[in-house]
Amino acid sequence: MVIQVTSLIAVHWAIPNSTGKSGRVRVVPLYNCMSICLLNLGQRQVEGMSSQRNQMVNVARIREDFPILKRVLRGNRRLVYLDNAATTQKPISVIEAISEYYMNYNSNIHRGVHQLAEEATIKYELTREKVKKFINAKSNDEIIFTRNATEAINIVAHSWGVRNISENDCILITEIEHHSNIVPWQILAEERGCKLEYVVVNENGELDLDDYRERMDRNRVKIVSVSHMSNVLGTIVPINKIVKMAHERGIHVLVDGAQSVPHMEVNVQQMDCDFMAFSAHKMLGPTGVGVLYVKRDILTGMPPFLAGGDMIKEVDKYYTNYNELPYKFEAGTPNIADVVGFGASIDYLNRISMPAVRNHELEMIQYAMQAIQDVQGITIYGPTQSSVRGGVIAFNLADIHPHDLATIMDDRGIAIRSGHHCAQVLMRKLQVSATSRVSFYIYNTKEEIDSFVQALNDARRLFRV
Ligand SMILES: Cc1ncc(COP(=O)(O)O)c(C=O)c1O
Question: Which of 56, 177, 186, 190 is a good FRET partner for 357, with 20 to 30 A between their CA atoms?
Fold first, then answer.
């Protein structure tokens, strides 16, 4: 059945290229320099970006597909949703795909021989094929469905880590990581009695590649785990260079793609990473589904993470023969409906095309950076150049607490994020306990950014800063 599905699907794929640099802005006047940098857009590209830069999205048309964007909040305010790094909204096609599964072919997968089971299995496996094409993996066997990116990273830490890491080894992560890419490694380091080290982030919001090299050479590093794009600074890291540096030393690399896969073309074969983790809900898909990509050669050597039904070929009283890949890593009944919905979200993104998604976000970030440069008292964290920045801006406004600012925004129907963004290590480095954060996606508009900037100025007046 799976083979039938595989032969049905063919999705266009483009190869990403190039590299870039970044910087962090702390005070308003620096934005004068940024305007100049912004003019250079297009001369420098980020690893993982397409060269098809002229693709545009029709935002007005896209917005019609998202029922939630019609919501009116707090009396008469039209929703302005700027919290996309936390989770994205869902187009009607995703919502319908999920309800269609429940209405027409709800069934468990892989086991039944009846028609519903067959249809559900085909749809579930179709999404695996779509994910494979979307990130350009070599085979469907390398795609494991998880609950989210967090679970995907935990599988690597527990399954691969326990087998491959021992005392005197080192796990190398960075100061920009989300807690999901810190805590599993802390636990593993404690269990194995090995070292955990952090590559430092510099004043410009970039990872220090010399520090990377030095730590790789000084320690017996077994794995490098790094976020492709920071959920706070927006920094898109030079992932190809990091992977190359690690592989030259025989070190495995896990890429946390939670913030990159939804926003730019990602090609795991070209990147050559060993593991990649990401979540469906950050790319128009439902919550409760994530992906772990693992190179097949590595996956074959990994013991199962969870055990039970569906991950077995044969169970004897005292012995079990495990199922083939990738089923060996998908124990129990999976989240079938949401995997089906995830397939619809990938279709949606493919219709727009990932270069167009990235282009739109570049336009948004460029516009937003320019618009807030005149807001007195603003401090922005992360690279000055939009070309090496994802669609995320973390900032503080004078000494207004981020939660107060988010409340003022909320009064105006504007959803932004405030807090530590699950990145307390980074917060300490920035010497703040929290920041506000806006993050964009394909349905955001310049008018929404204008409303946000107006609300920033309202907050300044209210707090007299
Ligand atoms: C960079 C990064 N990594 C990992 C995660 C965890 O994603 P999830 O909560 O879907 O597992 C997030 C979520 O915000 C993230 O931004």
Answer: 177
Question: Ligand 1 pocket check: which of 155, 176, 259 to mutate, most ligand atoms within 8 Å of Cβ?
Answer: 259
pLDDT exceeds 70 at position 162? yes
> Looking at 37, 194, 273, 422, which residue is catalytic?
422
Task: Enumerate residues lining ligand 1, CB below 6 A.
Answer: 85, 148-150, 178, 180-181, 227, 231, 256, 258-259, 279
Token duo for residue 149: 């990116």
Task: Set out the domains of the chain in order of their start, with CATH numbers.
Answer: 8-91+353-463 (3.90.1150.10), 94-350 (3.40.640.10)
- Residues sharing a CB contact under 8 Å with residue 242, sequence separation 6 or more, in sequence order: 207, 209, 212, 224, 226, 253
Residues 408-441 have pLDDT tens digits of 999 999 999 999 999 999 999 999 999 999 999 9
Query: What pLDDT is attached to residue 387?
Result: 83
Half-sphere exposure of 348 (CA within 13 A, CB side): 28
Nearest to 170 by CA among 227, 202, 218: 218
Q: How confident is the model at residue 21 (pLDDT cuts 50, 70, 90)?
A: very low
Q: Can you tell me the mean pLDDT for 343-354?
A: 98
